[in-house]
Design brief:
This protein is α/β, with parallel strands linked by helices and 230 residues long. The protein contains eight helices and eleven strands. The strands form three sheets. A five-stranded parallel β-sheet has the order 2-1-3-4-5, sandwiched between helices. The radius of gyration is 19 Å and the shape is elongated.
Length: 230
């Protein structure tokens, strides 16, 4: 799988054995992982690359998981990133505190790895549906991420892999304006140098395919900002 399209999970866990077990199991299921052993390192890592999901231990040295969660959720660019809180605290009051701080899910230790994987997929399905085999629809466009097929008004469309990833990104969040730099990170990946003009070229190709059977152009150019679907 192209690393740019692999869902990225940040694991924040000070116990090395648990950190490695989580990383191994997530990567075996096709996720890309990064790891932090304390809260300070986690806050630095999210500045370098915004993850799709964060698995965050409550009891961390230096900066606690609760404080990391609170700080992240005050950042506008991080509010839509799901945080799954891990904790040995099983009391209802602790769970409520974790959720009220901004956590999207709360898992009590000891937990089964398979249950945690399912919870990660559930959160990911909410924010990046195309990465977990979902069928996305927008007006008369249907995109099946599992079979890599796209239809518009019952016509099958042949898209190259880059155009497919572009359309997936747009269809995950219709109406959202994506800058060229954001599209480069999401579609091509951070580790690959591509000129921003390349985005324009592939947007042009995508538009050509989407309108080849007479349909209107669903992509919108937002001057000075980027592109949006609808």
């Amino acid at each position: 799988m192209n690393t740019a399209t692999q869902p990225h999970v940040l694991i924040v866990e000070d116990e090395i054995a648990q950190r490695e077990v989580l990383s191994y199991n997530l990567e075996a299921e096709g996720f890309r992982t990064s790891k932090a052993e304390d809260g300070e390192q986690a806050l630095l890592l999210v500045e370098e690359e915004k993850p799709d999901v964060i698995v965050l231990d409550w009891m961390l040295p230096n900066v606690s998981g609760i404080e990391v969660c609170r700080q992240l959720k005050t950042r506008p660019e991080m509010r839509d990133v799901p945080i799954i809180m891990l904790s040995a605290r099983s009391e209802e009051v602790d769970k409520v505190r974790g959720l009220e701080t901004g956590a999207d899910d709360y898992v009590v230790k000891p937990y089964s790895v398979s249950e945690l994987m399912a919870r990660v997929r559930t959160q990911l399905r909410r924010v990046r549906p195309s990465t977990v085999g979902q069928v996305l629809t927008y007006e008369d466009i249907i995109l099946d991420s599992e079979t890599h097929r796209v239809k518009r008004d019952k016509h099958s469309l042949k898209l190259g892999p880059t155009e497919f990833r572009l359309l997936s990104t747009f269809m995950e969040k219709p109406g959202r304006v994506w800058s060229r730099e954001q599209l480069l990170d999401r579609v091509w990946g951070r580790d690959i140098y591509v000129d921003t003009r390349t985005v324009d070229v592939h947007i042009g190709r995508l538009r050509k395919v989407l309108t080849q059977n007479g349909g209107s152009d669903p992509l919108r150019t937002v001057r000075g900002a980027g592109y949006a679907l609808g």
